[in-house]
Amino acid sequence: MNWKEFSVLTEGVCVEAIAGIFHSMGSGGVIIEDPQAARKYISEKWTPESVSEDFLNHEFVVVKAYFPEDNDVFEAFSKSIAAVEDNFQVKCSVFIDDVRNEDWEENWKKYYHAFKVGERLVIKPSWEEYHGSEGEVIVNIDPGMAFGTGIHASTRFCLRFLDQYVHGGENVIDAGCGSGILSIAAIKLGAAGVFAMDIDELAVRIARENIDLNGLADKILVQAGDIVTEIRGRQADMVLANITAEVVVELIPEAAKVIKSGGYFFGSGIVDSRWPSVQTALENNGFVVEQVLQDVDWIGVAARRR
């Protein structure tokens, strides 16, 4: 299958809104390229060989999404972008390009390498050899055209929370599972089982492939559906929500009904300007905020159910 790549160059303030538009339109994958974050990581952790100087010198953020080439979304997308420009008083430049599936795969293989998150987790692409040290928990991942590689701050926040709070035997709900990376990490850290869901059928397919790659099909159930609807009536010790602040706020009241007392809600994908609304929703629905992580403009939260 070939794809259309939509790239939006804009200011960071509206990144979440654009990512939300892409997800709501059924994108098969969303990427956020933030040069400010890249500059910070290079100065602290990374070596710069795989990051171009041109990208590092930019001040704008690029949000990319992918749609099958036969999916005509341009008209609806243009209207939504115009609304973003009006609401946020920003300028968005849009570029559309053709991407072959094999080109996508080769690009991931060139730039995506094994890395460690937290004390135990190692995220390893399926095509790369890695010999772990004692105590390391290795998650094999092939992102395909689905969001969730562990590189972006929002995913790393949830991985760090899982590394810290999973002690063994927990039942977990992964709301908006993307590539399945969080579900796989939860089980490998000791969780008993995961119910994972995503509104994107392609993400569900890729998540299942990654779950099979890690040999965990018997412990992780994945299905397509609206996360707010699908979570109702279930019970869990933990709910993961690596989505957008708007959807996190909508999900919190439902999550409060299914999380056991003393259980946890991990929210991520939250732009810092939207954090107050997420915090209020948590506090109004019986949660105690235990930990807040921030990286540039992104926030992740671990909250305990009273």
Overview in brief:
This protein is of the alpha/beta class. The chain has 2 domains: 2-107, Alpha-Beta Plaits (2-Layer Sandwich); 152-305, Rossmann fold.
List keywords for this structure.
4-stranded antiparallel beta sheet, 2 domains, Rossmann fold, Alpha-Beta Plaits, alpha/beta, 7-stranded mixed beta sheet, globular, 306 residues
Helix/strand layout:
Blueprint: E1 2-10, H1 15-24, E2 30-33, H2 35-44, H3 53-56, E3 61-68, H4 74-88, E4 93-100, H5 101-111, E5 115-117, E6 121-125, E7 137-141, H6 153-165, E8 171-175, H7 181-188, E9 193-198, H8 201-213, E10 220-224, H9 227-230, E11 236-242, H10 245-258, E12 259-271, H11 275-284, E13 287-295, E14 298-305
Parallel strand pairs: 6-7, 8-9, 8-11, 9-10, 11-12
Antiparallel strand pairs: 1-3, 1-4, 2-3, 5-6, 12-14, 13-14
Helix pairs in contact: 1-4, 10-11
Task: Describe the structure in your own words.
The chain has two domains: 106 residues, Alpha-Beta Plaits, CATH 3.30.70; 154 residues, 3-Layer(aba) Sandwich (Rossmann fold). The chain contains eleven helices and 14 strands. It has a seven-stranded mixed beta sheet with strand order 10-9-8-11-12-14-13, with helices on both faces. A four-stranded antiparallel beta sheet has the order 2-3-1-4. A hairpin with a 3-residue loop joins strand 5 and strand 6. About 2% of the residues have low confidence.
